[in-house]
Design a protein that fits this description.
Helix content is 33%, strand content 24%. The strands form four sheets. It has a five-stranded mixed sheet with strand order 8-7-9-10-11, sandwiched between helices. The longest helix has 19 residues. The protein is flat.
Length: 328
Amino acid sequence: MKVSELYEIPIEEAVEELKARGAKRILLQLPDGLKKFSLRIAELLQYEGFEVVLSAGGCYGGCDVAVNEATAVRADAILHVGHLEFLKIREIPVVYAPLKVVRAPLEELASQIALLLPRGAVLGLVAQLEYVELLPELKRKLQSKGFRTLIAEKPLILGCDVRAAESIANKVDAIVVLGAGEFHALGVQRRVDVKVLLADCERCEVRGLASEVKRREALRWEAISKAKEARRFLVVTSVKLGQFKLGEALKAVKALERIGAKALLAVVDEISVERLYAFTWADAFIIAGCPRLVFDHLEIYGKPVVDVEDVKYIVEEEFGASAEQEGT
């Protein structure tokens, strides 16, 4: 099913898989950016004989599968649109219909890269999920313009995992992130020392990210500095399967208590500004979950928001443990 000039969703393939599983009632889950297509997809599913229930919650990746909602409505399966499998879900069958790119301005992007980097430079190539399959074609176009290229062995980058870029950073002069939007590419630039270019397929634009990373890092350290002055902390984790960081959250609570601060642990399905703002007594918020909330909101109505990984700078000591280490 074509949803724009750039993208399509392979709903027909998903329908066949749902039928093969014998599913009748389907929980349809989409990220916010694709929810506008939920009616079209639901009608197609209904035409094929399925009963459809929509998930209205947020969906931030393959780590965010609506198992609880599906269980509550007694769905036979989840149709998860927009992402690939990230977690092994045992509670209920999950069928994935990832967003696929049908057309991308690779020639124009390669030409723009040629204007920004010297001929002969070695370029490392990584991509967001939808664009990974386009990397070989981008490689050929860049080589035709005089660049040497290296595609990471596992070139997929996620908002919370940029190891693909880190694995090749010391072998290249610059890294090109093929995708759309800055969230993933900024994560790469934060983690590597070489120049990073975002080849944005939606905007047909190539741009560097160093200045934006510098701006966001300044805001991040400002939030950490403000959090050092706080005395009452709310440490928050999400029960979403791929975002549940109880071990890290408990370690943060204990570390903050050791410096004389008051720290309470809170758990919620979906971490949001509205949920946190209700805790008016908190001077600062520590997020042990998806890094996107901290990326988007380094302050909530004047109160600092800090990722759990940065608590060490507040308490000025090293700490950290996985949920498994905590016996969870």
